[in-house]
Write a structure and sequence with these properties.
Immunoglobulin-like; six-stranded mixed beta sheet; five-stranded mixed beta sheet
């Protein structure tokens, strides 16, 4: 009987842990590219300025579960976040806000959908680099404004997308 007691306790703990995992479902939405940013918070890219370049900017659902339904992720331009960050991160002062005519986003309403059972929804951003000065660095600041379910991850809800000439 004494030899069975540790086995019984182990099985009880494992059973309880499985029940807790099921009850502790969570998910959060963030920009995966923001996790790849440099120490200054910039996801830096270099483009050939002789032609337009399309880049996929995704929103990702991470957590203990796959989405149980579609998630609408609304993204917005975050010029205010850039201005605040420039006050504390000197490197950001080397970048100009990407002009409105130098990019387009599909879909135009900047809403991407993470489909039920998947982890990612995408926006296509086309950079019209021929409109830019090749001697300057630009930044497209994006922020997740809202999500239709789950929470927005506070650490990676803003993306500073740096653009410079290759």
């Amino acid at each position: 009987m004494r030899k069975l007691l540790p086995l019984f306790l182990l099985v009880s703990i494992a059973f309880t842990a499985c029940q807790d995992d099921e009850e502790m479902k969570y998910a959060s939405i963030y920009f995966p590219l923001a996790t790849w940013a440099d120490s200054d918070g910039i996801f830096q890219t270099e483009f050939d300025f002789s032609r337009d370049t399309t880049y996929i900017v995704g929103a990702y659902c991470a957590g203990s579960i796959l989405p149980e339904g579609d998630i609408q992720v609304v993204v917005e331009l975050a010029a205010d976040s850039l201005a605040k960050a420039q006050a504390t991160i000197p490197e950001l002062l080397n970048y100009e806000l990407l002009p409105d005519n130098a990019y387009s986003v599909t879909p135009e309403d900047m809403t991407c959908v993470i489909r039920k059972g998947t982890e990612r929804g995408d926006l296509s951003v086309t950079f019209h680099t021929s409109q830019l000065d090749a001697d300057k660095k630009y930044i497209l600041p994006l922020r997740i404004l809202s999500v239709s379910r789950y929470e927005i991850a506070p650490r990676y809800n803003t993306l500073f997308f740096g653009v410079s000439k290759r």
